[in-house]
Write a structure and sequence with these properties.
Order of helices and strands: EE
Strand order of the largest sheet: 1-2
Distance between the termini: 37 Å
Helix content: under 10%
Structural class: mainly beta
Shape: extended
Number of strands: 2
Length: about 35
């Protein structure tokens, strides 16, 4: 079985590297991102 990835959005607003990405089963369409 082959897995497939789909681009669903892009991150904007970080001037550096994104160091953390998190989500929850309660809100699968929302992510929280952090950078240094």
């Amino acid at each position: 079985m082959t897995e497939q990835m789909t681009l669903r959005g892009t991150l904007k607003g970080h001037n550096g590297w994104v160091t953390q990405i998190a989500t929850t089963p309660q809100f699968p369409d929302m992510i929280l991102s952090a950078s240094r």
